From TrEMBL:
Transmembrane segments: none annotated. Residues 387-406 are annotated as: Disordered. It holds the Pfam family Cupin_2. InterPro entries: Cupin_2, RmlC-like_jellyroll, RmlC_Cupin_sf. This is Cupin. It comes from the Bacteria. It comes from Hyphococcus luteus. Residues 81-153 form the Cupin type-2 domain. The lineage of its organism: Bacteria, Pseudomonadati, Pseudomonadota, Alphaproteobacteria, Parvularculales.
Length: 406
């Protein structure tokens, strides 16, 4: 129990109000943790390129880093960028929360081992585009095998742990095993077999290590845009949950605007593009209605990222690829949290991917603001790329979505 000096309560007189109506916001447990770690903290909607961030020395990790405290993620998802110097490794650690890594730069290995009760130990190699998970309460260290730096983007569900327990010893030195999240032989084997997710029957691969999500083949999906490709990383122990995705938009195409809960962070894996975000109360046509100042835009390249639904969630957001290569994105999951994103319209039970005309949460191309298409085509022209959006989609709408999908 922490001792703190407290003032005596002062009762109001007559009809005066007790206490204050304006006061300094208090830090959460996770914010205190970030402050104690001593590295910079980025705040905002997104980052054009995480390779350009100013990193600080991180003695506890044996690395350099910067926290990403993105708008809309407070209390649900922790993120950071971490650099391992040439031919160095991170300090061994374990923690109570789930953690996931995407490799931006570098090559090396990871060592993962459990306590003596199971004796499981794993080693595997990583490269740019590798994505893998670290289960709770297992020891691990990341080893840079090259003479250049290695750079990672990490996501986890640490904020809830620190906000609830506020006890570093409990979080970083907990021996409770979680056998449902960690296993022996084959646990980190790569897998290419496509399966259907139990809840929405879209394509998934069940694995805990993906060697290269930048160049891997993606199956056709079509739900977010014509020609859209997608897989769900089906992490062991979370087969029935929305656990992010790896997706790709064809050259010259873009998504329908849509809304859902906060928590999704899109990491740009290849290509370049931009994302619009705006509060739902400004409707389908914020530019046409004179509310363009309420629309936020973030541009990104490979290594950049954006919080897809900031401002407390339920914001419209829309993604555009404007380069000469397909835009490939990863909806980077950080583990379960208190407010799961079901991608369902809770009033209708219909997939959020369906248009609002169908009871979903996406703006049909017929209903979007004319500025969206005009600006997209202008940016494509600047890049020397032509739009490949089917013209009829603006008059007849997107193909009807499966109302049972999500």
């Amino acid at each position: 129990m922490t001792d703190m000096k407290l003032e005596s309560y002062k009762a109001p007189k007559g009809e005066e109000n007790a206490g204050l109506k304006r006061w300094e916001r208090q830090k959460t447990g996770y914010e205190i943790f970030m402050q104690e770690e001593g590295i910079p903290v980025f705040r905002g909607i997104g980052v054009r390129d995480t390779r350009e961030l100013e990193l600080g020395d991180w003695p506890r990790r044996g690395a350099r880093g910067q926290f990403l405290y993105l708008d809309g993620l407070e209390g649900s998802k922790g993120m950071y960028v971490m650099e391992i110097p040439p031919a160095k490794s991170t300090e061994p650690e374990k923690h109570l929360y789930h953690e996931f890594f995407i490799v931006v730069e570098g090559r090396g290995t990871v060592e993962i081992w459990s306590d003596e009760k199971t004796g499981y130990r794993h080693n595997f190699e990583w490269q740019p585009g590798s994505m893998f998970r670290i289960p709770p309460n297992v020891n691990y260290r990341l080893i840079n095998s090259t003479n250049k730096r290695a750079l990672f983007i990490a996501a986890n569900n640490a904020p809830g742990m620190f906000n609830m327990f506020r006890d570093r010893e409990f979080i970083f030195n907990n021996d409770h095993p979680f056998p449902q999240f960690f296993g022996g032989k084959g646990f980190y084997d790569a897998n290419e077999q496509l399966v259907a997710t139990p809840y929405n029957k879209r394509a998934a691969i069940r694995a805990n290590f993906f060697p290269d999500i930048i160049n891997c083949e993606l199956p056709l999906d079509n739900q977010r845009a014509p020609g859209y490709r997608r897989i769900t990383p089906m992490w062991h122990g979370f087969e029935n949950e929305q656990t992010g995705f790896v997706a790709q938009y064809p050259i010259g195409r873009y998504s329908m605007a849509h809304y859902h809960e906060s928590g999704a962070v899109l990491v740009c894996l290849d290509g370049e593009g931009y994302t619009y975000n705006w509060p739902r109360e400004y409707g389908f046509t914020p530019w046409k209605d004179g509310n363009e100042d309420q629309v936020r835009i973030i541009e990104y390249v490979n290594g950049g990222l954006v919080a897809a639904a900031p401002g407390g969630g339920q914001w419209f957001h829309q993604h555009f690829g404007v380069g000469s290569k397909p835009l490939r994105l990863c909806n980077f999951w950080g583990g379960p949290n208190a407010v799961p994103n079901e991608y369902l319209n809770r009033e209708t039970g219909v997939s959020a991917l369906a248009t609002t005309r169908e009871g979903g949460q996406s703006i049909d191309y017929r209903d979007e603001d004319p500025f969206v298409r005009e600006e997209f085509e202008r940016r494509l022209a600047e890049a020397g790329v032509a739009s490949t959006m089917p013209p009829e989609i603006y008059t007849h709408g997107a193909p009807q979505a499966d109302p049972n999908a999500s």
